[in-house]
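Sample 1 of the test manifest.
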Amino acid sequence: MAFVIRCCYCGSIESALLTSPNRLIKKRRNDFLSHPSRQLELSKKCWPVSPQGNRMERCKYYPLLLCMVAEVSVSDNLLQFMKRKKDYIEEQLNRSIPLLDPRLGLIYESMRYSLLAGGKRIRPMLCIATCELFGGSTLTATPTAVALEMIHTMSLIHDDLPAMDNDDYRRGKLTNHKVFGEDIAILAGDALLARAFEYIANETQGVPAEVVLKVISFLGASVGYSGIVGGQVVDILSEGKKEVSIDDLIWIHKHKTGALLKCCVVTGALLGGAKEEDVIRVGEFAERIGLAFQVADDILDVTASFEELGKSIGKDERSDKATFPRLMGLEESKRFAEKLVQESKYLIEPYGKRAYYLEALADYIVSRSY
Amino acid sequence: MAFVIRCCYCGSIESALLTSPNRLIKKRRNDFLSHPSRQLELSKKCWPVSPQGNRMERCKYYPLLLCMVAEVSVSDNLLQFMKRKKDYIEEQLNRSIPLLDPRLGLIYESMRYSLLAGGKRIRPMLCIATCELFGGSTLTATPTAVALEMIHTMSLIHDDLPAMDNDDYRRGKLTNHKVFGEDIAILAGDALLARAFEYIANETQGVPAEVVLKVISFLGASVGYSGIVGGQVVDILSEGKKEVSIDDLIWIHKHKTGALLKCCVVTGALLGGAKEEDVIRVGEFAERIGLAFQVADDILDVTASFEELGKSIGKDERSDKATFPRLMGLEESKRFAEKLVQESKYLIEPYGKRAYYLEALADYIVSRSY
């Protein structure tokens, strides 16, 4: 079978006669890993373009190559760490939704379509890195890491619905409801949310049950009306309002995006056996990173092209939405993001080298694309 | 400090000068424990009523006394039991969604609109009654009972959405999305689902943490793609199909409705300290009751009037949906429901009088309206 593969970064086209594009991906990955000045990401962003140009229908099963030059000198270590963890997380995610009954094929496909649609897997990585920082194992953090990605995916599926943001594309692929219909998309989100809690309760090993309950409680609060949902509702209410202040915008993002990122780090710390003061400290670290992440996302929306981002661009601008660049200007937004990262680094300074990956992830989150 | 305490069973008022009402609770508990004919429950139902009548604000921290006479004679009993439990559950539901931040007013209203919209509260009652059957207390079962109603409410909100059943009325009131809009209704469902797990993890007292994890795991499975959601998806796929068999229909309802009813009883048993064989036994009891409940609901849809049911009537007929009356006829459906109830009674016979309320609830569920 012939595949034509386009690199999203350099635009170059490659074709290969292969039974699967995976071999080509592996080859390209190795090429890139041998260049320390380059940063590699596997993504489903670049699709195989068939000779017929039938792009969207061929793309479903073949994650291809996205290569970006990393001016960030974040070092080979982080790349290695991210690559290792990402492969591991993908494998765990793949195992987390088994086909329990042949009648469940459709909902199984729908849940997996979005859960395995790529993405940077930053949330699971933050959870695992924090657990390891406090001496916990990857294994102990894994069910929670998987659950965090399930919940992130659920919020994306519901957020993309016509009654919400009405997005047709996500990570360069059709959104869940465009493929499976609105009803199945709503239910797939519900099922991922329920599965997340079941998975933590059922699969977590190596820590006392009381700790697992704390994790579940914190996760529930981070998702519900005191977390993601609360942020989304206030965000919806703020749309089109002229008087949205920077404080309001910060409040919205601390809940809408920040709550789950904070949850990754706090649950990781709890599972790693951190003391209460350390849980609070890394929680404050994550609040700043979470906010910086959102500021970066707003900036991306202004500056990136469709090819770079894989989703509709300038959407925030069109919908008259309050964004950091709009309220404080592009340059000031960049400075604000940097300041938040500096503060966050200061917070985890006491952990020294043990916090290397957490710090590196923070750098990566904010500097990834501008 | 003075506290005035009302007994929920006998209505008698006691007052005491105490630094904490806990001492009075302990005294009353000892009094009751010395009477073997009486059953004692500690509950958050009776609140300290301050001399100013400032009831709700004082109630938060002081679980007070609920005393019940155990050997009461039939049917009035069930009514009394249901009324007492319903009042208690309504109060607990009311407390379960506090307004955490004034910005969250809209989502708070939306969640409470559906959660407090009435309903028979059968699910919490089943959970509490099963917990009590095995010697557990109402207090221990309460957070799970509340969570079960949250999840039931969430599934109704999402089920009513235009992309799903597109219903305008539920329990005689406008559906959530008709009042708050589709976006808020989707988010209110998500928030109730997340809050349910948070609530169990955070509020459950009186049992080991391992038991609470089992409850959460079973609940998650009952809601997700192996439970309610799975049943809904297969139900959607079966709509309009001519070849839906009785086996298919039973499968659908065992998941769509039965999974959560079974979950009520299984989690109640787990929280009451039941042995594994008893958990399985009451689980099988509940499977039959759950199915009988759905058969009764299908029958109701054919026979009941709008006033009796509070929702659009004959909807199943209009949408060309497979129902028990359609597949096996009205009379046969009634007999099927009765048979399921008989089997379920046989299963809990070994518990004798202790299972009185569970059995009475089973009767009520199936015979309630025809």
